[in-house]
Structures are given as C-alpha cells and as structure tokens.
Amino acid sequence: MKVKFGRSLAIAITIGTGLLVLANFFVRNEFLRRVQQTLLDWALILAAVALLLGAVNVVATHLRKIRGRRPGWVYSLFLLAALGTVVLLGFLDPRGVASPAVSWVFLYVHVPLQATIFALTAFFIASAAYRAFRVRSVDSFIMLVAGIIVLLGQVPLGQAIWDRIAAAKDWILAYPSTGGARGIILGVALGTILTGLRVLLGIDRPHVK
Amino acid sequence: MIYCPNCGTANRDGSSFCNQCGQRLGGGSKATCPFCGAENPIENIFCDACGAKLAPLVTPGVEEKEKPSLKGLSLPTKPAGDEEEVRDSEAAVPQEPSAPEGEEEIPDWLARLRASLGDSSEPVGEPPETEEFAAEVPGEGAELPEEELPDWLQELGVPPVGEVGEEQLAPAAEEFAAESLDEGAELPEEELPDWLQELGVPPVGEAGEEQPAPAAEEFAAEVPGEGAELPQEEFLAEAPLGEPLAEAPAEPEAEEVAPPAATPALAEQPEAETPAEGIPALSEGERPAPEAEPLAAWLQEEGPVILELSEEEMAEEGEGAPPAVMGPEVPAWLETLASGAAVLPEELGPVLATPGKPTPEEVGLERAAIPSWLEVLRPGRKREEGEEAPAEEPVETEGVLEGVRGALRLVPDIDPGPDQFVRAVSAAATVTPAHAETLTQVLARSTASSVRPRTVPVPRRERGLPWLAFLLLLAAVLIPLLAPGLVPGGATVPSALSAKAFATQVQNLPPGAKVLISFDYDPSVSTELDWPVREVVKDLQAKGATLLVMSTTPTGPGLAARMGLADTATLLGYLPGQEMGLQRLATSFSGAFLADYKGARVDEAALGVQSLEDVALIITAASSQDAVRWWVEQVGSRVNTPICAIVSGAIEPSVRPYYSSRQLAGLVSGWVGGLAYRQAVSPDAPLEAQSKAAIEAQSLGHLAIVVLIVLGNLAYWGKRLFGGRS
Predict the structure, then answer these.
(1) Are B699 and B489 in contact (CB under 8 A)?
(2) Taking CB atoms and an 8 Å limit, are A182 and B580 in contact across chains?
(3) Of B523, B654, B701, the CB nearest to A122
(4) Chain A contacts of B696, Cβ < 8 Å?
(5) ipTM of this model?
(6) pLDDT tens for residues B559-594?
(7) pLDDT tens string A70-90
(8) Which domain holds residue B422?
(9) Nearest to B216 by CA among B178, B266, B168
C-alpha cells in the first residue's frame, strides 16, 4: 500500500508541477511566474548535480577497469591522471576554471585534440563517398546530383564551374531540404506534445518506475 | 472463472454478482489473504504474496469462526417446505444422550448458552448433571429460543427441536423416503448430472434393491473429507466452528453433541464389504458405530442438517428408504445421492455390492472427481501441534532464518487437501523444469559470442582507395597554402541571403545596445565557427554594444574566453539545464547567473538587464540543431528579441527552416557563411590571406569528394558493364 501511495503521490506532484509550468505559458500571472521560476531553479540545481554525478561515475568506471587490469586500463590511468590534474589546478587557483593553468590545458590540449579528432571525419567521408553514392536506381541518381550540387554550390569553385550552381544549391536547401527538415521538426514537436500530455495525464510514468 | 470472495463459488467470467450469495464481484473487489493480508485480484485462487489458497479460506468459515454457533450439532430437520412432517417425526429423535464422562469443565460457549436459557444459577465451569445437560443441549429436548437458532436454521424454518416427537420421526422419515427414494421410478436421463451420465449410470430400477449400499460407498467416496472414516477426535478438531468443542473433552461431546445417528447413506456402509477407494476396509468390529460417524465437518458447516436415527430405528426401517433429509443448501446431486435415489453404473453396482469383486478401476471405470466448486469449499486440515511439516517446505538458506525449515511456510497452519496440493505442484512441475533447463543452457553457454562481426574483405581494386582519399585531401589543404589563387573562383564568395539578414541585424543595432552571445558549440567545430563568430563580435564591438557572453555547454565559456572578450564583455559562464536553463533565463534574467565566469558576483543592476527583453539581439553559435531549437522554442516564444544563429555547415539544413519561418532573424553557416557575412557588412573590404586560403582549401576539399564519388560510380558501372574486368 505504501508503494502505491508513493506512486500516486509522485504522479500527483508530476501532474501538478507540469500544469503549473504549462499554465505560465498561457497566462501572465506573477504568482505562476514565481512558481515556475522556483521549480526551474530546482531543476537547474539537479542538472548541475547530475553533471557532478556523471564525473563521479566516470571515475568509478575507470577505477574498476584499472583494478581489474582490463584491456586498455593504461588509458584509464591516463584519463584519471588528467582529470585529477585539471581538478587540482582548478581548486588551487581561486579563479577556478578561469585560472591561467586551466585555460592553458583547455586551449592547448583539449581544443586541438577534439578538433583533430573531428577533422579525421573528413577522411572517412571521402572514403565513404566512393561507395555510398553509387547510382543503383533513379532515387540514388537524384540524391547523387543533389549532393554534388550542394557540395559545389557551397564553395566558390562551384560558381566558377557553373554560375547558376549557387542558386540551384539555394533552391535545394530552401525547398526540398527545408521541407523534409520541417516535416521532421513537426513530427518531433507533435511527439513532444503527445509525450507531455501523456505525462501530464498520468498515462506515462517514467519517473516512478 | 471468478471466485466469490464471500462464498467461494466459481462464477462465470464477467459476472458482476455471485450467483450463490449475491456478493459483488469485479475489479473493485479484492480478495484478502487470510494469512498474509495481501490483497489479491478477485480471480485469484492462490495468494500472489504467500501462495495460500484464497477461495476456501475466505469463505464463510472465516467469519463464522468469530461467532460460536450451534453448527456441529445434529438436529433433526427436513427439507424446506416439509415442516409438518418433521414436526411429526420429533418422537423419533432419541431423547437420552449419554452423560458426559469425566469432570472436565464445560466450554465457554456452553456456559453462555446455559446462561441464555435462564439457568444462571449454575456455576460456570462445573460439569452439568446428565439430565440437566441433556435438557439444556439444543436438540435434546430443550426448547431453544428462536433467537438462539443459527441463521441457516431459521431460514429453513425449522421448529424448535422440542416440538418434534420421538414417535413421529420414524413415520415421517419413512414417508419422506418413500417420496424421495422411489426405487421403482426411473430417473430421466436428462436429469442426471453430467458426470453421472458420463459414467453410463443406469436407472435406479435396474440397479436393484441391493444397491443402496454401493450408493453409500460411492457417496462416501465422492464426499470430500470422507466423514465416515474420520475418527471422532479428528472430526471435532477439524470443524472450524467447533473450536470450543475441540477444547472440551472429545468423548463426552461425541456422545452428547452428536446423537446416535448416521448419515443415511453411510448407515448402510457396513453392508459393503468392498470399500471404495479412499475408504479403508473395516471389519464389522472395527467399523465405528453408526452414531459416531458424522459427516465431514466442512460439510456439516455448510448447513445441511442430517436426520439421524439410531441403529434400532434404522433396523426398523428395514430396507425402506433411509430417512435422509438434506438441507436445501446441499446441491441437487448430493441430495440425490444421499436420498438413495442415486443411480449407479451398471458395472459398479455388483462390484461394490458383492465382496471379492474387483474394484471399479479394475473393471475399467474412472472414478468421478469431486466437483471443483465443492473442492474449493473444502477447508484444509488443521495441522496437529507438533506435527512435522511436510518435506516440501523449503529450508531457509540465508538470513537470520538460515537452516530453519518452514519458518515462513507457504500455508502456515493449514495442510491443503491432497488435490489442492497436487494442483499446485503439478502447475510448477510443468513449467519450472522447462524454465530451469533453459536457464541452465543459457548459463552453460560460453560467454564469448559465437557470432562475430563479419569482416567484409576489401576488394583488391579498392585497397588503394584510402590512399587516394588521403592524397586528394592533402592536396586540397596544401595547394591553397603553397599556391594561393590557383583555385578557380577562389576570391569569389557565394552570396547568402541569410548572412545578409544577419549583417542587417548587426548593422541596425543602436549604439551601446546589449547583445547576448551564447557559445553553444564545442571545440570540435571551433575551427569552423571561431572565425565567423570573431567577425561578428568584432563588428559588435565596433558598434559599442554591451556583450553578455554565456553558454549552454560546459566548454563554451572556455571558447569564449579565448576570443579575447574578457575586457569588453561580461562572461556569464555556463548555464546548466540545457532547454530548462534557457526557459529559466527567458522567465527572468534575474538570478539565472549568480556569478560570472571568473567567480565575481553578477550585478544585474549594473548590467541593466532584468529580462531578455532588455537585450537588443541574441546570437547563438551552435554546433547542434538542438541548441538552436532550444533558443527558438524556449526563448523566441517568450521574448520579442530577435535571435540570430551562427552554425556549422553540417547542421545548416536542419536549422534553415527556422530562418525560413522568420524565427531566426539571420543565419550564418560555417566559414563560407562567415565570408558572406563579411562581404555583406563590408562589400569593398579585401579578403584576408587566411580567409582566401581557407576558402580555397574548402573548395578543393569539396572537389576531392566529388571526384571520389565519380570514381566510385565509374568502378561500379565498369564492373557491371564489363563483368568485373575493370
């Protein structure tokens, strides 16, 4: 019985909270605004704590890997060492993340490495282009043509090849591409509305499972 | 089937009320387990929590335990609607019960009963004199006040026992027997119970006059509890309503409470030398006296009243119909059996009637099972104190009860009937081994997956493909650096309307306007977005705008800090919560940032910003579609401040619909979009060398991919057209 009561209470709180926040979108009321603001402040605190929990989870996971000498445990060791170093640097300087040491690590280690990893995708894209755009049907032919137009229409070289290619690219992006993207966005919006209603009506209760 | 929580009757699915007692059925009703108290769906037969059987234990027996009743006493009566005959048969009731032996105290219920009869002078606890006791015991000559009668007896309209004369009983019984047991009458086949028809039961007349005895055997075998074979002590201990009786001396009560009588059908049992299954064969000497053979306690509890006759009176009746009178609550088929009108299988009659004949099973007959509704009504046998628990009860293997057997028994005190137990075990026996076997097989399998990802070998002709891709991209990067201006159209920047709109928003800002810039991208696309962002910030600084810099990603503030904005902008830092954070920001700017990126307190009054309405322009530099969507949905729907976006080229198609719908006031996409913005703001300004090299490299990179696409199609079509020789 306690479990059922607890569930009912959780559902009631969820529905009440959701309706209060939702009402503030349609009614300009100072009380509702304050209630919503308070609830959102709580949510932001929880989100920040969740970030902290994520960091703790990373540490715990890699500690287990090191203890068990699992494959790649050396990388875990470096990860924890780097993590500890950055955290230590941040705590030692009262400016925290704005301290020169942390900024140096971020600018000259983090940013170049992440940008480099992302740049490698250019090679994968180039290799995939060799196989992915083969013309096997009319549809694939249309996609091939559209892809080439957009690729070349984005850069000055394309205009040098065909002066109307930029206009063709704009047309593809403005109509077929935008139409498809808008359809996806509308579908996501409808799904969001439906999910919200199901939660507000207590049909879906992912928070009490 | 839906079992009634009140009487246990099995009702058809969908029934709203019990066919037997009118109890409401359905979703709102719950059957409470009498052992663990858990609430179970009304359809449950066994408790979900402890496995105890619900149906028989929530039957009236539970309630009746609380109120002492006169059930268990054998009172002469007759079927409803036949009161006069019963009244006339009073004389047949034996009036002289045996005096109690011993000096044990009388039970409380008896004392209360005596007090209610007005004999309060008798001290409670003293054994009554034989005559007094006989006079006080209901049914033994004393006139019981009507309010003392059990409900079921009052419903039957049974007159006080004292009115029934001894001399009148025998004729009445004979008359009733003549009515109910018309031996010559042939029972219509359609009136037979289904299970009897399946047995091929012949009409009574065919069975002959010798067959009442087999009928008794059959009846005794059919009736659960086998009342005829229960010893007197067991009978008293078993009766749920007879707890006071169980506490009292068994023998005196057996003699006093149960007057010399026998179930009519059972009374003829001694004649059957070959007992039915489940009934031990007893010699005449071993067989208990007819007057000491009550029906099973559970059957007596159900309310039927048995007219009991002494052995002498039975002998006087001779072969006449046994004066069995069953209450109306007894099902029709039982009534038929008890009255002797039961029809027996032709094969069974001689078998049971003649000693030395084979048993029914031996002649190929299958004994009819007890109806499920009757089995449900049967209470379990109360386990004797000190009786060892069944071996099936598990031994606790962990916890404080480790090693203790039956500490948390499935059924604490009730030993379920054999059929009930078999049912539970058989249900588990069919399912559990299969599950166990499956689980064993799964656990026995090797943890190493036998299905490994299939490695597709790279065709020989494609083994040089990665090298080709690398060389083309390397050329795309090196050529602009080593030979600038070599790429055709390198100095020409494609026009972009969205970039022009962005530039217009910046140019229209009033001097000193407050602009909020959110760095919502991560370092992976920093090389693509840093330059256009820097170009925009440069223009804003030139306009004297007050820049408020924030981020919805943890790395955003660091990227903003390296732009050199620290002296000219307020770095508000990271706003957690993603879209929730933006919703909070749109609700009120106040309190959203308590400290800036450097840890200093944010002075909102000094900033002059109380809400986002106070900001002239919002710019989000994003590498994900979600970030742009959050700004449009959570902020754009609440404030009128225009929102512009600087996005990576990869997400432009996803974000462009917001620009088309004017939810975004301007859009800059990647490096090229930045150049277009630059060209829109300063059409006459020459491009920097770095910008030229970047845009030429991008042109060549796109061309390299197009070349690879063309090569791939040539290889594919060459193979198809020339059979793989290409």
Answers:
(1) yes
(2) no
(3) B701
(4) 156
(5) 0.84
(6) 998 887 767 788 898 998 888 899 889 988 888 888
(7) 989 999 999 999 999 999 998
(8) 1-59+407-427
(9) B266
